[in-house]
UniProtKB/TrEMBL annotation:
Belongs to the complexin/synaphin family. Gene3D superfamilies: Single Helix bin. Its main location: cytoplasm. It comes from Buteo japonicus. Pfam families: Synaphin (PF05835). Keywords: Coiled coil, Cytoplasm, Exocytosis, Neurotransmitter transport, Synapse, Transport. This is Complexin-1. GO terms for cellular component: cytosol; perikaryon; SNARE complex; terminal bouton. Binds to the SNARE core complex containing SNAP25, VAMP2 and STX1A. GO terms for molecular function: syntaxin binding. It is found in: Cytoplasm, Cytosol; Perikaryon; Presynapse.
Length: 66
């Protein structure tokens, strides 16, 4: 009796036939939208942090007289 170590998904990983997911395009679009939203939130967070740092820098410049 020969035991097969390959799983059903091994063929997919090796470029074999994939089962078609009818919602694959929709899922991919939702995933892309989620990535875009996360990127926008990350950029907003860092822009806010940089603005706070600039306020702090300006306060130091004012104290020092630069």
């Amino acid at each position: 009796m020969k035991k097969s170590w390959a799983t059903k998904d091994m063929g997919k990983m090796l470029g074999g036939d994939e089962e078609k997911d009818p919602d694959a395009a929709k899922k991919e679009e939702e995933r892309q939208e989620a990535l875009r939203q996360e990127e926008e939130e990350r950029k907003a967070k860092y822009a806010k942090m940089e603005a706070e740092r600039e306020v702090m820098r300006q306060g130091i410049r004012d104290k020092v007289g630069i």
